[in-house]
Amino acid sequence: MDKDARFAAYVLADDEGRVNVPEQKTTGGSFIVVRKGYEHPEKAVQMLNFFYDDIENTTEEDMENTFPEVAEYLEQGVDDSTKPFNIVVLPMQTYLEDYQDVQAVLDEEMAVEEITNSQVRQKLKGIEEYIENPEDASTGSWSSYHSRIVGWGLMNKVTEEDRFNWAKAAYVVNTPTMEQKGANLIKLEEEDLIKIITGAEPIDYFDTFVDKWNNQGGKEILKEIEEELAQQE
Q1: Structure confidence by residue, pLDDT tens digits, 80-100
Q2: Residue pair 32/85 in contact by the 8 Å Cβ criterion
Q3: Rounded distance, CA 148 to CA 100, Å?
Q4: From CA 209, how far away is CA 33, in angstroms rounded?
Q5: Which helix (H) or strand (E) holds 74?
Q6: Which domain of life is it from (predicted)?
Q7: What are the tens digits of pLDDT across the range 183-230?
């Protein structure tokens, strides 16, 4: 609602400049489930192949002729939110490679046609539009630039500087209290941290949030985790 608002991507680094990131599970927590007895379970796999193989490797001309609805969505800067499921089946380094391809084209070191990912080629149009005229660029172009250049660019920079510290989670399984109170705690985290970010509460409010988190089940969860880790040792 604020026309003067400006968005930027940041990384949270420690005192030594390292960016601590927890390792994600292979699945990332997303699954496609087909109900037992469904006549065509293969359709789920066919849809995956369509979105992450057929479309990804379709030329721009073929996209407009063969998948016009998809081409229209890409033109508007819309992507995963329009798919029947929001799950990514791509290598972890995909975004870095896509950024490097886009930057190479912008630096005139690579031709657009050399980009194999059709969605990235489409986003490139919006990125160039934003660079040429950021004040009058469409929302889709703004989104393409800030996600693909600003966000991915920052990820690429930290990667090249070898500043990521991939921390292995000590415990990844739910505890009894997590199952009972986890949803409420996640809601509490989202609401209270947004209050701090937007300025509705001062940074010192974080201490209040911690007390609330502990009192609403967090302390019990930590105790359960500590007990389980002690047994594993």
Answers
A1: 655 666 676 677 788 899 999
A2: yes
A3: 10
A4: 36
A5: helix 68-75
A6: Bacteria
A7: 999 999 999 999 999 999 999 999 999 999 999 999 999 999 999 999
Could you say which DSSP state residue 169 is in?
P
Residue type, 129: E
User: Which residue has 């009058």 as its token pair?
Assistant: 136
Q: Which residues contact 134 (CB under 8 A, 6 or more apart)?
A: 142, 145
Q: How far apart are the first and last CA of the chain?
A: 53
Tokens of 20: 């601590």
Instruction: Give Cα separations from 191 to 186, 187, 209, 225 (angstroms).
Output: 9, 6, 10, 25
10: its two tokens? 């940041």
How many other β-carbons are positioned within 10 Å of the β-carbon of residue 147? 19
Q: What b/e sequence results for 78-108 when a residue is b if at least 16 CB atoms lie within 10 Å of its CB, and e otherwise?
A: ebeeeeeeebeeeeeeebbbbbebbbebeee
170 DSSP 8-state letter = S
Q: Which residue has the tokens 């149009």?
A: 125
Q: What share of the chain is helix, strand, coil (3-state, %, to 5)?
A: 60, 5, 40
Residues 80, 86 contacting (CB under 8 angstroms): yes
Q: 10 Å Cβ neighbour count for 144?
A: 25
Q: Please state whether beta strands 164-167 and 19-22 pair in parallel, antiparallel, or not at all (unpaired).
A: parallel
- Give the three-state DSSP class for 30: coil
The pTM of the full predicted model, rounded to 2 decimals, is 0.65
> Helix axis angle, 205-213 relative to 176-198, nearest 10°?
170
Helices then strands, counting H and E runs in the chain, come out as 10, 2
